[in-house]
Design a protein that fits this description.
Elements (H helix, E strand, L loop, with lengths): L12 H15 L10 H15 L7 H20 L4 E3 L8 H4 L13 E6 L1 H13 L5 E6 L3 H4 L6
Length: 155
């Protein structure tokens, strides 16, 4: 008997799955966070991937918890003055567009999100980037040498 072809073709497809879980949480009345872009980013393919995984609904808590904890950590760090987030393996993450980051009393808060990604993920993320307008700058960079090519150095 031939095995059915997996809906997940490469690692970038897991970004669709993460978006599905964020969309599901957003739909809850008592959601821990809201991601108005997640459903659109996940699309039908993301739903198909999630529906094909046994016990997919039982895994939601882990994805939601992970998102919530990272949101809290980033917000806390920004309140303490961090002005750059390097978001590795970000996939279709929408934090730069959906998070309300704190303002400084002396200047407009300008947190920079840098998300090195594969070209295929960058293409998927284009729709969310167009929707943005929250005043948060995000650089989504393709390729393994992305950080070095932007002259970003650790402090």
């Amino acid at each position: 008997m031939a095995q059915a072809e997996s809906l997940i073709r490469n690692i970038s497809d897991t970004a669709l799955l993460a978006a599905v879980y964020r969309a599901r949480e957003t739909d809850r009345q008592d959601a821990l966070f809201r991601d108005p872009f997640a459903g659109r980013l996940a699309g039908k393919r993301g739903d198909q991937i999630a529906d094909s995984i046994p016990f997919s609904n039982q895994n939601t808590w882990a994805w939601v918890t992970r998102t919530y904890i990272f949101d809290q950590f980033i917000a806390e760090q920004c309140q303490q003055g961090v002005d750059m987030v390097v978001n590795l393996a970000a996939g279709l993450d929408t934090r730069p567009y959906r998070m309300l980051l704190p303002s400084s009393s002396t200047q407009l808060y300008n947190t920079v999100f840098i998300s090195p990604s594969t070209p295929s993920v960058l293409l998927q993320h284009t729709s969310c980037r167009r929707i943005s307008g929250l005043g948060v700058r995000q650089d989504r960079i393709a390729g393994p040498h992305a950080i070095r090519s932007r002259n970003v150095r650790s402090r």
